[in-house]
Amino acid sequence: MSSLIDVENLTLQFRTDEGLVTAVDDVSFSLAKGEVIGLVGESGSGKSVTAKSLMHLNAHNAVYAPQSKITLHTDAGEVDVLSLRTARELNVVRGGAISMIFQEPMASFAPAITIGSQMIEQLQLHGDMSKARAKEISVEMLDRVGISDPHKRIDQFAFELSGGMRQRAMIAMALSTQPKLLIADEPTTALDVTIQAQVIDLMKDLVSEFHMGIIFITHDLGVVAQTADKVCVMYLGRIVEEGPVREVIRHPKHPYTRGLIHALPRLDDLESPLTPVPGDIPSPLERPPGCVFHTRCQEILGDVCKTALPHDTQLDATHRVACHLHDKKEASA
Amino acid sequence: MSDDILISADRLTVGYPLGGSILRKSVLKAVNEVSVHIERGSFFGLVGESGSGKTTLGRALLKAAPITGGSATYRDDEVQYDLATLDGAALKDYRKRAQLIFQDPYAALSPRMTVRDIIAEPLEVMGLTASRQETDERVREIAARCRLNLEHLRRFPHAFSGGQRQRISIARALVSGPKFVVADESVAALDVSIQADVLNLLKELQSELGLTFMFISHDLSVVAHTCDHVAVMYLGRLVETAPTRKLFAMPRHPYTRALFSAIPSLDPDDRGTAQKLEGEIPSPLNQPPGCKFHTRCPNAIDRCKSEEPQLKDPGDGHEVACHRWRELLEAVPA
């Protein structure tokens, strides 16, 4: 499979009144065409900031470290995303080759402009087409995502649609420009379970139909298990574990991943007590030295975790973990 | 009403007038003839999609939504109140006995008040303490129970994470010494890793302080782990209610079963095998005749479209409102 986007050593800090705050720290991953990658972590783990970097969409106080590199492979050649500056240059990653679906479908549509004019506007911005053609495509897409009566819906406002409908319309809008990469930032979190199941099904269908790559950001491991091929688990701006979805969920190697899985209330086992990951995620202003997770880790080894940053250990070709537990095993083996 | 029931609602209805002509006033019934009995010291779960009326029912029991039909009674060792007619001094007294924990800990706390002031506010408003010293003592005691330390009390809410903020909201709800607490989606806004922590805290507080909880949630797996009795709501009606274990061992209503199968499985090889529910919950303004669920029910027959099933107890305490539950259960291999 050929690569669609490569993220290498992405490090991002925000300039704030309290000093530089590290949001993403040395993150590398790549996504192939037609692959779905799940980015999992608590709030504050840097998953949304990572995703926004791909569209160069972070606020103006963001400082990318010089070694950070994001390469997008398009039909027209390679694009160095972080070097893009002008709005015209950025068009390729903002709605051109990359589209994004946000968490809150009510907040993502302008409230006083019809769904249709918003869809038509972006189509005309990104493709050279007539208004009539843009409308035709928009109606088709609305129909494709399961919105009944698309001819009528297209002239309605966002508030006239229910939550599930709005998220469908959002998906239709994001896909109408035929992006190569779709970033879905917690697209189902605000929805009911029954509607979530429908939206997940829809997204699965669309992946196979349009053959695009998806970065699926969520804190729900169940949703990841249902959608992703590959998982990256993030904590305080670092990827602590990466691997194929089956491997990571069935044989989690990082104590944090294990904690997340154990914290999930299981329906098939009502007897076992709920086990939270103890403590809270530290403030990014007070990043712990050594392994970022050591303040909450249940399997802490001792001083090494508090002082030394664990390196990535490649467990096999596709599964890597950053934890001193696995350093040790390698050394003794 | 037996002694161990704290809250009892009988055909409780909450309706909101919507205008219309004088002759034909239309009314939106958010909660429609719901009967529930909540035992003392229990953890009562209320499940349903958004728009099912679960929050409205919770608020009606707190006397924060207008009760337009039926009755609801609150009874503890000291007092008994009829919630439909409660007012004046009795209502004030009820406010300290029944409290609410909100969903969003980011919106529920005033950013301009210190944590100490937030937790102390109910005591001051209700005049429950005689001196500032006494207030401080009560605040410290309840804060300690919610695992907040003295240092935390001096800070402002922005300095706290979601889980800590929710613990502050819990402390505020409990400081007046309530007997009945409605927790409305209290963990929905939290990360999974923190969610378990808050749920465990609620359980602990319940047994230590002898509280009765009504736990409103859309998440069945959370309810399964915390509640001892569950009621499922759909479009203002209860469709199924049972002790948690019975309900989860063998759900009887097709809606409950659909809710179960919609939960994303943690098994990556178990994708899309579940039966998915089509469509969305109808608008309460435009309620379907007959069984409210028939528009989305995969098993609906003609009878379901005309005749509304009543919530019935077949004798084992597992009540269900469905015409066909028996035959459907037999059709599904156990």
Describe it for me?
Chain A is about 35% helix and about 25% strand. In chain A, helix 6 (about 130-145) packs across helix 8 (about 165-175) and helix 8 runs parallel beside helix 9. Chain A is globular, with a radius of gyration of 21 Å. Chain A is built from 14 helices and 13 strands. The two termini of chain A are about 35 Å apart. By secondary structure, chain B is an alpha/beta fold. In chain B, about 35% of the residues lie in helices and about 25% in strands. Chain B has helices at about 55-60, 90-95, 115-125, 130-145, 150-155, 160-175, 190-210, 220-225, 245-250, 255-260, 300-305, 325-330; strands at about 5-20, 25-40, 45, 70-75, 80, 100, 180-185, 210-215, 230-235, 235-245, 320. In chain B, the strands form two sheets. Chain B has a seven-stranded mixed sheet, sandwiched between helices. Chain B has a four-stranded antiparallel sheet with strand order 2-1-4-5. The radius of gyration of chain B is 21 Å and the shape is globular. At the A-B interface, helix 8, helix 9, helix 10, helix 11 and helix 12 of A face helix 6, helix 7, helix 8, helix 9 and helix 10 of B.
Helical content of chain A stands at 25-40%
Order of strands side by side in the largest beta sheet of chain B? 6-7-8-3-9-10-11
Structural class of chain B: alpha/beta
User: Which value, in Å, is the CA radius of gyration of chain B?
Assistant: 21 Å
CATH fold-type name of chain B? Rossmann fold
Order of helices and strands of chain B: EEEHEEHEHHHHEHEHEEHHHEH
Figure out the total of helices of chain B.
Answer: 12
The coarse silhouette of chain A is globular
Largest interface: A-B, 44 and 45 residues
Give the beta-strand count of chain B. Answer: 11
Q: Give the CATH H-level superfamily of chain B.
A: P-loop containing nucleotide triphosphate hydrolases
Main sheet attributes: strand count, strand direction, barrel closure of chain A: 8 strands, mixed
Number of helices of chain A: 14
Q: How much beta of chain B, percentage-wise?
A: 15-25%
Cα shape of chain B: globular
**Separation, N- and C-terminal Cα atoms of chain A:** 33 Å
Poorly predicted ranges of chain A: none
Domains counted in the coordinates of chain B: how many?
A: 1
Q: Helical proportion of chain B?
A: 25-40%
